[in-house]
Structure formats: C-alpha cells, structure tokens
Design brief:
Layout (H helix, E strand, L loop, with lengths): L1 H19 L1 H14 L2 H14 L4 E7 L2 E5 L1 H11 L3 H10 L11 H14 L17 H13 L1
Length: 150
C-alpha cells in the first residue's frame, strides 16, 4: 500500500512539473527572439504550445504572476525568418496578437511571408559550406613543375 502511495506521489509530482513548465519554455523562447536564435524559438514555442495552446494577454503562470502569452506569434516569426513560409502563415493566422517583443503587425508579417513564398525566396536552413573550387589536374602539374624548377 505504501508503495502505491509513493508511486502516486511521484507521478503527481512529475505531472505537475510537466504542466507547469510551459511558461518556462515560453520565457526562454522570448529571450531567443531578442537574440535572433530562430531554431531555439521554434523549439521553445512548440514546447510551450504543447503545454498551453491557448493564447492570452493575461495568462496566469504561477501564483499571482501573469504574462502576455502569444507563442504562435513568435513561432510564426521564427518560421518566417528561417524560410518556412507556409508554417509561418499558419501560425500567424492562429495568433491573437503580438507578444511583449513586437516585431511587426500580424497582417504585415503574413503579407511578407506570402510575398516571399510567391517569389520562391525560400531560405536555406543548411549550414554546410559551399564546395571548394575544382582545380584542373594538368594545371596543378605544370605549377608543381615550375615551383620545383625554381
């Protein structure tokens, strides 16, 4: 019986921690917006949405602490900045307003995403460097001969 009670307490503690952490993810995501770390913004706002999907200008986090909660706005902005325009438009259509860091009106951001999408200006998210230039093997041989002769 004690074992079941202990297990119930542990599970309750884990569940409470998981439910209470949406606002921590949101705060970390807002900090990432300020520094332009868009992949972190996407990750943190997605986690915040999983914990609390309802936007609110006065969302209660803990005790008597309330925040301006708009994760779809920030995730949409991050999608826009990383070239994922379809997802950006979807998130901007779900948001009810900008958050505490206002990076533009929803209408203007949707318009920007649609224009870039129509123009085919899809940003690349790869960080691989371009391949090195190819060197003609015959030219390389002639240069080596000239250097060795000098």
């Amino acid at each position: 019986m004690k074992r079941h009670a202990f297990l119930a307490i542990v599970l309750l503690a884990i569940a409470t921690t998981a439910l209470a952490s949406w606002y921590d993810d949101y705060n970390e995501g807002v900090k990432a917006v300020a520094t332009g770390r868009w992949q972190v913004v996407i990750q943190k706002m997605t986690a915040a949405i999983a914990g609390n999907s309802k936007e609110n200008d006065n969302a209660r986090t803990y005790g008597n602490i309330f925040i301006n909660y708009h994760p779809y706005y920030y995730r949409g902005l991050a999608y826009l900045r990383t070239g994922r325009y379809e997802q950006a438009i979807s998130d901007f259509e779900k948001t009810s307003g900008p958050g505490e860091i206002d990076r533009g009106s929803i209408e203007n951001l949707i318009q920007e995403a649609k224009m870039k999408q129509a123009a085919g200006n899809v940003g690349t998210t790869t960080t691989e460097p371009p391949p090195p230039p190819a060197i003609d093997p015959e030219l390389r041989q002639r240069v080596n001969v000239a250097v060795n002769a000098a």
